[in-house]
Design goal:
InterPro entries: 6-PGluconate_DH-like_C_sf, ACT-like_dom_sf, NAD(P)-bd_dom_sf, PDH_C, PDH_N, Preph/Arog_dehydrog, Prephen_DH. This protein is of the alpha/beta class. The chain has helices spanning 30-41, 53-61, 86-96, 110-118, 163-175, 185-208, 215-218, 223-229, 236-245, 247-269, 276-293, 317-327, 357-366; strands spanning 23-26, 46-49, 66-67, 76-79, 101-104, 126-131, 152-156, 179-182, 305-312, 334-339, 345-352, 370-374.
Length: 377
């Protein structure tokens, strides 16, 4: 299914950047190159550097920035390197460019900070940060300017951080379409352990069960198992570093999850025992409660109803569906696509506000669309 003749597919005109001067990006992988693409689109002078000449050349060829020059005088330096060398590169950049603001985008914040403090590095112009964005694939070839849009960007300042420097890092996040959030390094690492690092491990552990599963079992895979294991395709080399740097908080969450799994296993071994069914029900209910706490669109805790539409798997159909919904004045709050194995159609799971469900169903059916299901009562 392809989206044709849609205004949503055309990029918006660039705005004036908040970030001024040259931005030096050290590391031209997924995050570094994506930052470079976004800033370059705004007209910012982006100088790229990388220990891998081929990776650097690839990022430059794709338009993420230019090669670093000896006379560069960057106003902002973004360190986007693997976690095991983040502290080393931050220290080097602070010494080479003592007047520049230096930030990093590593997914762990406390370990590099501790290392730098132990070395006695002057951290006046350093501000750790972390965009909560990414893709399953890495490298410059997977970079995209829009991966930060609407995503949180954690900024870890302290009482010694100059207001001017803080404004530079927040301007970077805003220019990339992200939402800056201030957190301490300790709170950040505890938060990403729960919201990112443990989900990665859970997805990987579940997906590992598929390795020895019969082919017939795998043919039953639906959207639920694909959603649950999507991030299991991530790079092992990078995750070994991330998990090692945030081992304590991750282990604490895993211990709690392991205890819950043990309780569920005990209940399933004796499902007729007193309290066993209640234990299972409570487990599912706590999951319901947790999902309800997750922020929805625009950070709101607003819940939506779902309309599932059958869409023929041929060019232009998804665009036609969106066009019909637009004519019906039904706003699509979220969208998920599922392809049925062996079938020449897909299922478009469209989230809408509750009061729009009935008009959407009636209007779509009158235009020839088949409604597969709905969560509306």
């Amino acid at each position: 299914m392809t989206l044709e003749n849609s205004s949503a597919a055309r990029p918006a005109p660039p705005l004036a950047p908040r970030v001024q001067g040259t931005v030096r990006i050290v590391g031209s992988g997924l995050l570094g190159a994506s930052i470079g693409h976004a800033l370059s689109a705004l007209g910012v002078d982006v100088a790229l550097d990388d220990t891998s000449p081929s990776q650097l050349r690839l990022a430059i060829d794709y338009g993420a920035g230019r090669a670093t020059r000896e006379d560069d005088d960057p106003a902002l330096i973004v360190v986007a390197v693997p976690p095991d060398v983040t502290a080393d590169v931050i220290e080097r950049e602070l010494r080479r460019h003592p007047e520049a603001v230096v930030t990093d985008v590593a997914s762990v914040k406390l370990e590099p900070l501790r290392t730098l403090r132990e070395r006695g590095v002057d951290l006046t112009h350093y501000i750790g940060s972390h965009p909560l964005a990414g893709r399953e694939r890495g490298g410059a070839i997977a970079a995209r300017a829009d991966i930060f849009m609407g995503r949180p960007w954690v900024v870890c300042r302290d009482e010694e951080t100059p207001a001017r420097d803080l404004a530079v890092v927040e301007a970077l996040a805003l220019d990339l379409g992200a939402t800056p959030l201030e957190m301490t390094p300790e709170d950040h690492d505890a938060a990403v352990a729960l919201m990112s690092h443990v989900p990665q491990l859970v997805a990987s552990l579940l997906a590992a069960r598929f390795v020895d599963a019969p082919d017939g079992f795998l043919r039953l895979a639906g959207q639920g198992v694909r959603d649950t294991t999507r991030i299991a395709a991530s790079a092992p080399e990078l995750w070994v570093q991330i998990l090692g740097a945030n081992a304590g908080p991750v282990a604490s969450v895993l211990d709690a999850v392991a205890a819950d799994l043990a309780d569920v296993s005990d209940a399933l071994r004796a499902p007729e025992a007193p309290g066993a069914r209640r234990s299972l029900a409570d487990t599912i209910r706590r999951g319901n409660d947790g999902v309800e706490r997750l922020p929805g669109k625009h950070g709101q805790n607003r819940r939506f109803e779902t309309v599932v539409v059958m869409v023929d798997d041929r060019p232009g159909q998804l665009g036609r569906l969106f066009g019909d919904l637009g004519e019906l004045e039904v706003n699509v709050e979220d969208l998920r696509l599922e392809h049925s194995p062996g079938a020449l159609f897909g299922l478009a799971e469209i989230s809408v506000v509750p009061y729009a469900v009935r008009p959407a169903i009636a209007g779509l059916e009158s235009r020839g669309w088949k409604i597969a299901s709905t969560t509306h009562d």
